[in-house]
């Protein structure tokens, strides 16, 4: 069980992107973890919009530069697209390209119709033979698929574009690129405008910033450092990442957490890679002897929202923003206090 869970963690880390309290505290966490529930997302203004038609003024071929630094030439509008990451799948469907998606990974579960698409393997364990059989004219890859796999697919004649966003701006750029090469520029701009609006609505400025940490997994303890989009979410929401001196996702010790004594601890739901059931990371954190635990400031955030660099990351930001507002408004916490 542990090896399986740790494998899921590694998938989240590569995603860079592309992850025994009392009853009163548990109830409180449940309320906050549902700020951006599936119901809220499905009824959002973005997903209620009618998918735009392909831009009529797009002229092919189109040449773009992906996040690997490679120039990708798109000879004609893609009609058969394979997505190799949940974030890519979410963005493709948001662009109104669901009918053109012919293959996804085992982890692509949003929107629900994406789960019905043919599977090409895991995130780091893609099956190139299955991809070839789907005869795609565009493969949308991710850093976590591995550069060797990307290179192999290119050598086999597949047209591959790879993404590795590390900030909201990077995510927006990748969406705009997808829109450009698929004839969905107008829709891509709508989505980016939507993200910017959500980000601005979630922006907080406090006199004293709450000190925040995000834990992806607990055995060993993986946290989000600087140069990650999760670090950016914390900053926009008005917080200070207590592990911002670490770059990327890093392993820390229990003593590191205790010595830094964060005001707020954010934990990914489930096993750190989403899924329903037991919240392993939360239960482990609640055993620590630190202020955030004692004062009930440990919060579960939907792992699918906070770990995937798709347009939905703004819902994780919205969640974090509301959490920090609640914490700063609480008389129980002296912001900036440390042991």
Concise structural overview:
This protein is α/β, with parallel strands linked by helices.
List the helices and strands and how they pair.
Elements: H1 2-14, H2 23-33, H3 38-42, H4 45-48, E1 62-65, E2 71-74, E3 81-83, H5 86-94, E4 101-103, H6 128-133, E5 138-142, H7 147-155, E6 160-163, H8 168-182, H9 185-201, E7 211-218, E8 221-224, H10 229-236, E9 240-241, E10 249-252, H11 254-260, E11 264-268, H12 280-285, H13 291-294, E12 298-301, H14 303-307, H15 313-329
Parallel strand pairs: 3-4, 3-5, 5-6, 7-9, 7-11, 11-12
Antiparallel strand pairs: 1-2, 7-8, 8-10
Helix pairs in contact: 8-9, 9-15
Describe this structure in words.
- This protein is α/β, with parallel strands linked by helices.
- The chain folds into 2 domains: 2-40 and 204-329, Nitrogenase molybdenum iron protein domain (Rossmann fold, 3-Layer(aba) Sandwich); 53-183, 3-Layer(aba) Sandwich (Rossmann fold), CATH 3.40.50.
- The protein has helices at 2-14, 23-33, 38-42, 45-48, 86-94, 128-133, 147-155, 168-182, 185-201, 229-236, 254-260, 280-285, 291-294, 303-307, 313-329, and strands at residues 62-65, 71-74, 81-83, 101-103, 138-142, 160-163, 211-218, 221-224, 240-241, 249-252, 264-268, 298-301.
- The strands form 3 sheets. Strands 7, 8, 9, 10, 11 and 12 form a 6-stranded mixed sheet that branches. A 4-stranded parallel sheet has the order 4-3-5-6, sandwiched between helices.
- Strand 1 and strand 2 (71-74) form a beta hairpin.
């Amino acid at each position: 069980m542990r090896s399986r869970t740790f494998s899921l963690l590694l998938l989240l880390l590569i995603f860079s992107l592309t992850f025994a309290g009392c009853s009163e505290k548990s109830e409180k966490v449940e309320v906050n973890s549902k700020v951006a529930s599936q119901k809220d997302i499905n009824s959002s203004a973005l997903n209620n919009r009618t998918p735009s038609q392909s831009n009529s003024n797009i002229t092919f071929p189109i040449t773009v530069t992906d996040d690997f630094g490679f120039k990708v030439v798109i000879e004609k509008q893609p009609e058969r697209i394979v997505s190799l990451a949940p974030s890519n799948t979410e963005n493709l469907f948001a662009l109104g390209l669901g009918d053109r998606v012919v293959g996804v990974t085992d982890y692509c579960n949003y929107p629900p119709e994406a789960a019905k698409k043919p599977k090409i393997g895991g995130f780091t364990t893609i099956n190139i033979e299955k991809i070839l059989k789907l005869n795609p004219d565009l493969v949308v890859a991710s850093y976590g698929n591995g550069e060797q796999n990307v290179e192999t697919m290119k050598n086999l004649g597949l047209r591959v574009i790879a993404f590795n966003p590390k900030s909201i701006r990077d995510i927006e750029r990748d969406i705009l690129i997808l829109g450009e090469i698929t004839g969905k520029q107008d829709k891509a701009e709508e989505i980016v405008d939507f993200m910017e609006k959500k980000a601005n609505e979630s922006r907080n400025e406090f006199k004293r910033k709450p000190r925040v940490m995000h834990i992806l997994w607990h055995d060993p303890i993986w946290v989000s450092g600087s140069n990650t989009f999760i670090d950016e979410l914390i900053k926009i929401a008005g917080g200070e990442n207590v592990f911002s001196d670490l770059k990327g996702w890093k392993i820390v010790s229990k003593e590191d957490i205790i010595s830094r004594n964060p005001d707020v601890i954010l934990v990914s739901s489930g096993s750190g890679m989403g899924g329903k059931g037991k919240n392993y990371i939360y239960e482990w954190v609640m055993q620590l002897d630190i202020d955030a635990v004692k004062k009930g400031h440990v919060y579960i955030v939907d792992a699918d929202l906070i770990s995937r660099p798709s347009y939905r990351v703004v819902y994780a930001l919205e969640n974090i923003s509301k959490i920090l507002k609640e914490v700063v408004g609480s008389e129980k916490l002296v912001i900036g206090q440390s042991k």
